Amino acid sequence: MLICKKVHYKGEKMKNKIIYLLTVIISSISLVACTTNTPTSVVNNFFKDIKPQMQDYLKNTISNDKNTEKLSKEIQDELINKFSKVQGKVLSEKIDKDKAQVEVELRSINLGKILGEVFKENISQAFSGEELSEEAISNMLIEKIKEAQISTRKGTIDLVKVDGNWEIDNKKSLASLILGVNEEIFNDKSSES
Fold first, then answer.
1. Could you identify which of 41, 111, 159, 160 might form a hypothetical disulfide with 179, taking C-beta atoms 3.0 to 4.6 angstroms apart as the criterion?
2. Is residue 74 included in any domain, yes or no?
3. Is residue 174, in this structure, part of any structural domain at all?
């Protein structure tokens, strides 16, 4: 059982670092995307801006962030590659006074599924008596990211009007949609950095 706890701890640390990194990126991009007049245009600008801003952020900032500095360069490069291909399309818009909801169709990798597969394989190997190193977990994660296919999912982006401008309201919900992870993952207080 000690091996299982070590695997869970190592896998959990890596998951938290990746989720943290991508949430910071998405939140910073959504702050920039707040300068247009309609909810649909804010969302369209967000998806237009996500590719170059995500690449720039990952390339220029990741190595200086203590929460993500231990992610290998190869993991960083694969995340840049995969998340630079995010595509979003507005399906509908509902406005109710100073609140709006924009339904979107999103094409992206499903990071939640990838992390789940890595964790499942780690647990399986732990039960067979094999202790995995962080390097082995990283290599497994790199391969899963490389193999990941772009999938399509639908979701809703909430917006709120602030000082006459529409802004994306719930950054965690947006990050959850883009990353393909359950929003509850952001509320995990047991995470280690």
1. 111
2. yes
3. yes
Mean pLDDT by 10 residues, the chain (193 residues): 45 64 58 64 84 64 54 76 85 96 92 86 82 81 90 92 87 78 56 40
Q: What is the pLDDT of residues 81-116, one digit of tens each?
A: 887 788 889 999 999 999 999 999 999 888 888 888
Here the tokens at position 147 are 């193999």
- Quick check: is 192 in a domain? no
Q: State in Å, rounded, how far the first CA of the chain is from the last one.
A: 23
Please give the model's pTM, rounded to 2 decimal places: 0.69
Strand duo 99-108 + 87-96: pairing = antiparallel
Count of domains for the chain:
1
Q: How many CB atoms within 10 Å of residue 98?
A: 11
CA dist 10 and 126 (Å) reads 12
DSSP string across 173-186: HHHHHHHT--GGGG
Domain enclosing residue 80, as ranges: 2-187
Q: Please check whether residue 188 is in contact with residue 130, taking contact to mean a CB–CB distance below 8 angstroms.
A: no
Report yes or no on 89 lying in a domain: yes
